[in-house]
């Protein structure tokens, strides 16, 4: 009997396997001369593929190796050139014409000023009244905006501020928008690399990067001095670090098993040995620092903290289950709780570090609230108490924000583009028509954004059918970015579509996942029969539990193979899938090009501008 397993992973033709295989009883000793210790629930197989590179010639089941090393780490010679080409497209779109329009648009009116206050005084500052400003968002995003102002100069007529750049003096608009453009471009780089790692495909990685680069919502946030592009970047970077951590931790299990570890043994004997520096989950700790940075931009990053903690636990349990640990849940909780606690401490310390300007000066808002209130203010502890009061007042502002706004929207409208935000509007200038219009509209590329809901539905179905960890990780991250806002909607809180920004990379990944499922694996080379390799069957007549792709020296009918049959008489499914996916990306690119003038404030004849308002008054 042949155990075919589940359908092959679409991007690499790698089948998913059962977590347990029947142990061979034809020998009571292993290759090293020790007693055989095959756990009843472990992933060891009755037949193993001997790897001559292993110490002592120890062999491991191919399925175990495949599950613990999900990504082929061989260098792809086309990977980085393709990545850099996508990033170059993103950089050109975000940097060219960055100084237009002139002046501060939308919330640049606040954040550009606050950023200069941080650069010049260490805290947000009201230059008009020459006092500290009370602001309701942490300072890191404004510090990053201030880097561009420091480098390229700043000008503010209201505060009577004129400052030359420390690197080169350009238009002040370029200065306060520069950091957002760079971070937006880097997020595209991050998308290509993490999508490639998730899906094992350079093509899919570049497709994901292109979709992000050609999204109008992302482009507008990358060309304006708002905080949300920085929040998006740090949240997605934290997720990327956790994905790398997952691969690293699974590889450690594989290396330990190759070195002789028996995970089925209870207690310390079955656990990974602690050796510095390899035993430290550096990537996970980096993710904690990045989450602390995200919190230092906006508090809404907090919603991702429990979601990412759950991912770590689930992935650690999965790694132990694949390795053959008898009690994976208990072992994972015991082994990882300390590291998670350390990650939490690092996250808090990183967040506090973003307030360093407030701590190191005496003129910040509420900096000496205790002393000003006639209370005792102790060193260090007093400063933390003052900061807590600051946060309490900011929290009250957020929870009581119910004032109506022309461009406010509800969470259920965001993915439908029900109410985009106009950042800039002007009818001045000559466009060769009686009336003209120039607008910067925070609008996602419609073809792309209207794909998100169907993609999420397909992702959920495929994730359940394939039991694919990637689908679960993407869906959980999307939920962390969107669902909390539904709760606030019931309180009538004023909200805007750019609150969805941190969820955008994960929505792109959901579309990319579905594109990969449409493409499918390449056509098998054999025209009639699928030849796959397997070790010899065990002598006791039991099946190995391996899927067809993991057998050797055994010829199977094509319909029993997990790979698609080869049919030279017709077009194979893979080719059709490539055409469909390519056509979709091209359609998104054409849609982006059509709406591009409304993303960058290009002056158009009024009729052409109006033609782009597909949903009429909802977009005006």
Average pLDDT reading? 84
Query: Which class do the helix and strand fractions yield?
Result: mainly alpha
What portion of residues belong to β-strands?
5-15%
- Based on CA inertia axes, which overall geometry fits? globular
Distance between the termini: 64 Å
Taking the sheet with the most strands, its summary is: 3 strands, antiparallel
Strands, count: 13
Radius of gyration, Cα only, in angstroms? 28 Å
Strand order of the largest sheet: 9-10-13
Overall helicity: 40-55%
Unreliable spans are 1-58, 528-569
Task: List the total number of helices.
Answer: 21
Identify the quaternary structure here. Answer: single chain
Please give a structural write-up:
With 620 residues, the chain is mainly alpha-helical. The chain is built from 21 helices and 13 strands. A hairpin with a 4-residue loop joins β7 and β8. The N and C termini lie far apart (64 Å).
């Amino acid at each position: 009997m042949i155990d075919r397993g589940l359908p092959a992973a679409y991007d690499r033709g790698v089948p998913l396997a059962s977590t347990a295989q029947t142990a061979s009883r034809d020998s009571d000793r292993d290759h090293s001369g020790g007693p055989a210790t095959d756990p009843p629930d472990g992933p060891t197989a009755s037949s193993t593929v001997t790897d001559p590179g292993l110490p002592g010639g120890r062999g491991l089941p191919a399925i175990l190796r495949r599950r613990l090393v999900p990504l082929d780490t061989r260098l792809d010679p086309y990977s980085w050139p393709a990545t850099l080409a996508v990033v170059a497209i993103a950089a050109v779109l975000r940097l060219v014409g960055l100084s237009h329009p002139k002046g501060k648009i939308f919330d640049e009116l606040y954040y550009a000023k606050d950023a200069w206050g941080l650069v010049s005084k260490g805290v947000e500052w009201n230059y008009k009244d020459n006092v500290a400003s009370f602001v309701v968002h942490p300072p890191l995003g404004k510090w990053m905006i201030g880097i561009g102002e420091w480098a390229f100069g700043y000008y503010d007529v209201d505060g009577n501020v004129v400052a030359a750049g420390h690197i080169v003096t350009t238009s002040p608009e370029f200065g306060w928008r520069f950091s957002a453009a760079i971070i937006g471009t880097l997020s595209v780089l991050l998308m290509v690399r993490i999508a490639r790692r998730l899906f094992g495909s350079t093509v899919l990685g570049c497709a994901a990067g292109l979709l992000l680069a050609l999204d109008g919502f992302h482009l507008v946030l990358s060309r304006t001095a708002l905080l949300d592009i920085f929040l998006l970047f740090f949240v997605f970077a934290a997720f990327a670090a956790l994905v790398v951590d997952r691969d690293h931790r699974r590889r450690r299990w594989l290396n330990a098993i190759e070195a002789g570890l028996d995970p089925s043994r209870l207690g310390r004997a079955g656990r990974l040995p602690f050796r510095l520096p390899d035993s430290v989950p550096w990537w996970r700790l980096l993710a904690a620092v990045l989450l602390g940075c995200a919190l230092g931009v906006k508090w809404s990053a907090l919603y991702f903290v429990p979601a990412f903690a759950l991912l770590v636990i689930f992935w650690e349990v999965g790694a132990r289950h694949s390795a053959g640990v008898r009690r994976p849940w208990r072992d994972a909780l015991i082994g990882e709780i300390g590291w998670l606690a350390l990650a939490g401490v690092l996250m808090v310390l990183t967040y506090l570090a973003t307030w360093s300007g407030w701590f190191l000066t005496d003129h910040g808002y509420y900096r000496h609230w205790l002393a000003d209130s006639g209370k005792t203010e102790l060193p260090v502890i007093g400063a933390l108490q003052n900061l807590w009061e600051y946060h309490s007042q900011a929290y009250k502002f957020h929870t009581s924000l119910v004032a109506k706004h022309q461009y406010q929207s509800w969470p259920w409208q965001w993915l439908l583009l029900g109410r985009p935000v106009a950042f800039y509007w002007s009818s001045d200038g000559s466009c060769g028509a009686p009336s003209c219009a120039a607008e910067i509209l925070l609008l996602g590329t419609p073809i792309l954004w209207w794909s998100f809901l169907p993609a999420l539905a397909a992702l959920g179905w495929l994730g359940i059918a394939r039991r694919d960890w990637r689908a679960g990780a993407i869906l959980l991250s999307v939920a962390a970015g969107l669902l909390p806002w539904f709760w606030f909607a019931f309180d009538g809180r004023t909200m805007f579509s750019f609150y969805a920004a941190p969820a955008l990379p994960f929505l792109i990944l959901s579309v990319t996942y579905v594109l990969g499922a449409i493409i499918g694996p390449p056509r098998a080379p054999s025209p009639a029969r699928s030849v796959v390799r397997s070790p010899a069957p065990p002598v006791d007549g039991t099946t190995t539990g391996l899927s067809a792709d993991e057998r050797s020296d055994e010829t199977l009918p094509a319909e029993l193979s997990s790979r698609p049959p080869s049919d030279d008489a017709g077009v194979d499914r893979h080719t059709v899938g490539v055409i469909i996916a390519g056509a979709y990306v091209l359609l998104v690119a054409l849609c982006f090009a059509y709406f591009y003038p409304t993303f960058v404030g290009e002056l158009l004849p009024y009729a052409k501008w109006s033609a782009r308002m597909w949903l009429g008054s909802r977009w005006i």
